[in-house]
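FW: tagging you since you asked about this chain on Friday. Here's the raw sequence from the shared folder, copied in full. Didn't touch anything.
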Amino acid sequence: MLPAIAFSATMLVYSSSSAQSLTPAEKTQVNQMIEELHQKLHGSSATNNSRAVSTLQAILKSPKATSQYYMACIKELQFDAVGKRESEWREWRERNEDRLKSTEHVAALQYQAKFLLLTLAVALEGDEAAGVKKVMPLLIDYYDDLTRDFDKLEGHRRILITPALESVFADRLKLTLTMPPLEKWIDAPLPISAVYDGVILPHFRKEKNHPALQAAWDKRIVHESKTLEVAGRGGALGLPVDLPAGIPEDIARRFGLDGRDSKREQQREDTRQKKISGEDFRKDRLPVLHWGKNRDALLYGPNAASSLQTLGRIIRENLAHSEAPNWLKELKSLAAGGPNAESDNPTANKP
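HL: got it, structure written out here
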């Protein structure tokens, strides 16, 4: 949209200030030149992005193809581009080839390339929300596969913490120059909790799709339990402090919740990964996830009374939990601001 607006603005300035001094033939010639430049500039971006999709699809056909392309990226970007000798490249390759061609390293590279492909799919859709909706089933499948293989990636997970657009794949494909910017999509596949907080759950909340939202919470619980790694936010276990990102403002107002603190908290969130034990997950993290799931059931589901009872049971069963006081405070707000609460507008609920 922005390139089109800029192009139109250029034509407007041209027509108002310069048209008087040009003959009809000259005007036609200038217009053709501008159109040609526009097509070359923006058409080349589309061509590059389309070529990148084809390249990534090709290198994902086999571990060997992934490894070969990765080595070609390293050679081009870190040796040829900076003027290093061929002998230096051969020496480096011989010293590192076994490690870089290991099954675990190549598997991590494939997950990085797959995530970059998903990122491209979102960006190329034009509308980011439409792109997220389109890739959502593939994104959840991606995390099913990643968490299944997670233990095999020990020692190479840093690859999956690296932003996809900072990978050697994106660098060689020049995607930072041609990809449109994304506002809400996450930068990297890990940590998983950041993906759910930033993309997956907000998507289903926006659609107000209660069954899909609850299913997404179930997936999150499974995925986090398999990885035992969460984003660093707030406390030592990354426990959420305020209303999570992705709750629409109309829903927050309806239940008397203030999303401003959560927005500030989201801005402060870092992307550190914190490894926790299975016991810590069961005692500390799992109740947090159950709380989030049932809070969303209250906000978007059909049975508010049942959801409030479930939230109360979570507090009752976890009285020693560090978040219990915050949960009780939130429960009071949710109960007081529910859908049957009196509106600020005295005529709002009248027919």
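FW: The mean pLDDT is 80.
HL: agreed, and The radius of gyration is 26 Å.
FW: great, closing this out.
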